[in-house]
Amino acid sequence: MIETADSRTAILDAAKQLFMQDGFRGISMRQIAEAVGVTKAALYYHFQDKEGLFVAIIEEYLTAMSVLIDQVTDTDQSVREQVSDLVQRILTQPPEQRSIIRLASQEMGNISQPNRARFLEMYHNRFINRIATLLQTGMEQGELRPIDPRLATWTLLGMMYPYFHPAPPTQMLPAAALIDELLRIYFDGIAQ
Length: 192
Description:
Oligomer: single chain
Order of helices and strands: HHHHHHHHHH
Number of helices: 10
């Protein structure tokens, strides 16, 4: 068997792919164990159950997003440049990475209330509130028009949501030109 840390990573990677392919209810711990090449006992050594594994995938992604936001905001760039950098970094992640948020939102109804509450707390503290704070800073500095920063956050994420899919149509791949246009529309609108 592979090393413990490597086993955990392999399990998370395989489970992520299976969850995206077949949904939370569509896979079993046995299928995950087979995909990784470990015994069910080894799988249960790392994760108590399928729900714990699912939440671990989401938590790992939200932790990575928090680190990404730190990297973007720990610069001397303007808020607009920081938001642009954040959007570009998120949308240029591999599709299976950036689609974790969509997967989480689609499958939340299939997990227990305590884990749903845990996800929402992590999602807001590590992602949503951090973006809202960044936008609020831009508003306070006069760089952005003063509006509700949470509304501005949800609007930005709503524009990005079609690209949080494991396999978007080829014409919808977030190439640099598409990302630039999305950001232009977000910051400047579509009026002449």
